[in-house]
Amino acid sequence: MDSINYNYAIIGAGCAGMHLALAMMEDSFFEQQQILVLEKDSKSINDRTWCFWEEGSGKWDGLIDHAWSKGKFYSSTADETLSLKGYRYKKLKSIDFYNYAKEKINAAPNFHWVKDDIQMVNSNGKTSILGQTQSYIVDHIFDSRIHPDFYQSKDKFTRILQHFKGWIIETETDFFDPEEFIIMDFRLKYKDSTSFSYVLPTSPRRALVEFTLFTKELIEDKDYDEVIKSYLSDILQLEKYKVVEIEKGVIPMSDFPFHARHEAHLTKIGTAGSWVRPSTGYSFKNSEKYSQRIIKNLKAGRKPSSGIARNRFRHYDKLLLKILKDRNELGEELFTSMFERNSTRQIFKFLDEDTNLLEDARIMSSFRAAPFLEALYKQVFT
Ligand SMILES: Cc1cc2nc3c(=O)[nH]c(=O)nc-3n(C[C@H](O)[C@H](O)[C@H](O)COP(=O)(O)OP(=O)(O)OC[C@H]3O[C@@H](n4cnc5c(N)ncnc54)[C@H](O)[C@@H]3O)c2cc1C
After folding, report:
1. CATH class, 159-253 region
2. Alpha-carbon separation of residue 343 from 82, 122, 319 (angstroms)
3. pTM for this predicted structure
4. I want to staple 355 with a disulfide (CB 3.0 to 4.6 A). Which of 59, 68, 181, 359 is the partner?
């Protein structure tokens, strides 16, 4: 048993855990508090690329790998130039964020990074955490482990997967415009599914070309490769390139109430706390925003998770997920109508949960009515 009584423990130093640790470190309120960071991994590989949008400059500008001020959306019926105005779409390599946060955490005298694979927590009475070889006593736990109920209650909630494979390619001659990215391109799909490609060029000769599906089941590895290959040759008309890196990933998209798993002395964070927007899979900016909300709550003596789960937006996501589950072939049409009928600025505001009710209504009414109403009807009456 570790003899220190820690004020806070963060289980999992991934996107959410590191954001929260950094936010605590930057606030003098926590200067005298002992904060334990428990992570099973060394966090020394670049295991994902984070993209997010932001108006003007931002906190992570020193770490970002590339940013775009022009964007396109394509489908079989649309060719839209995104009206980004003051927004920029930014890309960050996870390893750069991990290295930055690890260095800060290791240098802070009141932070204690311990490599441990947490087996169990007990948050009734004196809160304790059981690691592989030792246990820790803590006042409050922030836990980024996904609750096992999520895997055991498959049939009770709408659940689909955002899964993707991307190739970082290099060309022999200048081909890409490094100022312009493609957010979604539905011109080549996998069967009749909600699936699209996106293109993130970082130089005239280098780009990440990724194929993404929002479906119930994963597909075979070779199927992603075939689509990416066809997309490059048939849609982008690019024949000569070499693949220099590969990225693959799966993000659960579900209306499972992760946030309902908080306990008196334990707050779920990250994917495990509903910080990933279920309809989009984005969470990097949410992690920054929600960590700040936690800090505010702790300082005000409120429940740490207060105000994080916004019911209205969960409801919209639930609806969209239901359509994607029941009528997966409609994804292209839904996203096309959203990009055709709203400014990018409004879409970003909506996805950031910063819109008011009237603005929400405008976005919702831009979706084609019939399938939307059908899903709404099913949600209310079944
Ligand atoms: C490949 C990929 C690409 C993505 N791209 C984007 C993007 O472009 N933009 C965006 O906004 N979002 C993106 N996401 C979604 C989301 O931002 C990430 O999944 C994000 O990392 C989620 O944060 P998290 O802290 O919940 O989980 P993670 O970042 O996965 O962190 C969880 C941490 O907990 C640790 N852990 C787990 N169990 C234990 C245990 N028992 N004991 C100790 N430690 C433990 C893990 O090792 C890990 O470090 C992407 C996700 C993936 C998978």
Report:
1. alpha beta
2. 8, 48, 22
3. 0.93
4. 359
